[in-house]
User: What shape does this take?
Amino acid sequence: MGSSVGLHARPAAIVSAAAQELDGTVMIAMPGGEPVDAKSTLLIMTLGALLGDAVEVSGDDSDAVEMIATLIEQDLDA
Assistant: This one.
């Protein structure tokens, strides 16, 4: 997780907007937690992911998963 305060509203909105452009399903979860749809800003924010937290990105399209995982690693507050 790269954003300085975690997946709050702005980074979550950026991630969900990117996920909405994808054809496949992408899910995000805290390790051991219930996955949420990456297309939902609100659901992403419910994860409570903070700077430095690990999150798991999964889905049915490896390119889409990689794209969302790379996006999450960036500082989306800049």
Observations:
- DSSP finds three helices and three strands in the chain.
- Strands lie at 26-29, 36-37, 56-59.
- Helices lie at 9-20, 41-46, 62-73.
